[in-house]
Amino acid sequence: MNFMRIFARNLMRGPSTVPFPFGPAWTPQRLRGRIQFKLASCTACRACEQVCAPGAIRFDKTPEGLRFMMWHNTCVFCGLCEFYCPTDAISQSDDWHLAHRVDKKFEMAIRETVPYTACTGCGMKTLASAPNPVGIVPPFTAEEIEQHRHLCPACRKKALTNRGATP
Amino acid sequence: MSLLHAIESQARRYAVRSPWIYRINAGSCNGCDVECATTALIPRYDVERLGCQYCGSPRHADIVLITGPLTARVKDDVLRVFAEVPDPKVTVAVGVCPISGGVFRESYAVHAPVDQYLPVDVNVPGCPPRPQAIIEGVAQAIEIWKERI
């Protein structure tokens, strides 16, 4: 009579099938899914390009600035880019809805450009990237980040020395 | 003649509701194959709710799932098996390997992407994709299948 017990249990619990695609699917909180990129926090250090095993992330120099390109169709969701990013500019969401028709193949990408700017200290052409926060005590405030964004690397060093922080 | 026509239209009506799936392993690491098997065999995911069934022969297939980066070793065999699938058919590339090559991209031993040899219709990226993502891809393939038949 064991089957009666199983039958009763199944009646009470209902089907174990996930209702997707006719209903919502449960997603684990820490699922490593689609890559997200926050241009404002990018320091243009290119660490993500260095560690990306399948070569999904690429940086190109363009006349406008440094272009960040990331193709979801090569990403293996290993999470190394998120791990090595000093400012959490690149992160993984729990979005796994990546299936698409083949004509959208090359639209499955992130294309953003870190623009060039003129250094407010010396006037040199430089990338308007966020400053690297590693080892900065006390940490940068929001205004300082905006100040450093418009400085060239040499002027950033000078500003850090004046600030009295350990570089 | 009209009887034949009636039978054909009736058969078409049923075929729309139950496309059969065939799985080709083009040199995959078996990760995506395990996920494909999961979608069919585990009641939690159960792709057969969509009317799909995995079949053992390419000649019975309507939807083809391709996994793997199309290694040089299996390329000719994959192309031969794919040619045996009768038209109209819908092709789904499962995993990043057939779409772009994934971690094997630009290797001398693989011929990825697959779509330079076969007409691919739906891409399901992931390494491997979740079973639900594969079901989502199969659902999109069924939409295309309804237009084709």
Textual characterization of the structure:
The complex is a heterodimer of chains A (167) and B (149). Chain A is α+β, with helices and mostly antiparallel strands and 167 residues long. In chain A, 25% of the residues lie in helices and 20% in strands. Chain A has a single domain (29-163), classed as 2-Layer Sandwich (Alpha-Beta Plaits). In chain A, the strands form two sheets. A four-stranded antiparallel beta sheet of chain A has the order 2-3-6-7, with no helix packed on it. Chain B has 149 residues and is α/β, with parallel strands linked by helices. In chain B, 40% of the residues lie in helices and 14% in strands. In chain B, strand 1 (20-25), helix 2 and strand 2 form a beta-alpha-beta unit. Chain B is globular. The model of chain B has no long low-confidence stretch (mean pLDDT 91). Chain A binds chain B through residues 15-18, 20-21, 25, 31, 53-55, 71-77, 96-102, 105, 108, and chain B through 43-46, 49-50, 93, 96, 99-103, 105-106, 115, 120-127, 129-130, 132-137, 139-140, 144.
**How many helical stretches of chain A?**
5
Number of helices of chain B: 5
Largest β-sheet summary of chain A: 4 strands, antiparallel
Strand content of chain B: 5-15%
Query: Cα distance, first to last residue of chain B?
Result: 21 Å
Short description:
The complex is a heterodimer of chains A (167) and B (149). With 167 residues, chain A is α+β, with helices and mostly antiparallel strands. Chain A has helices spanning 2-13, 47-51, 80-84, 142-149, 153-163, and strands at residues 35-37, 57-61, 65-71, 90-92, 100-101, 109-118, 125-127.
Key phrases:
heterodimer, A: 167 residues, alpha+beta, Alpha-Beta Plaits, two-stranded antiparallel sheet, B: 149 residues, alpha/beta, Rossmann fold, 5-stranded parallel sheet, 5 helices, 14% strand, globular
List the helices and strands and how they pair.
The complex is a heterodimer of chains A (167) and B (149).
Chain A: H1 2-13, E1 35-37, H2 47-51, E2 57-61, E3 65-71, H3 80-84, E4 90-92, E5 100-101, E6 109-118, E7 125-127, H4 142-149, H5 153-163
Antiparallel strand pairs in A: 1-4, 2-3, 3-6, 6-7
Chain B: H1 2-17, E1 20-25, H2 31-41, E2 53-54, E3 63-67, H3 75-84, E4 90-94, H4 96-100, E5 122-124, H5 131-148
Parallel strand pairs in B: 1-2, 1-3, 3-4, 4-5
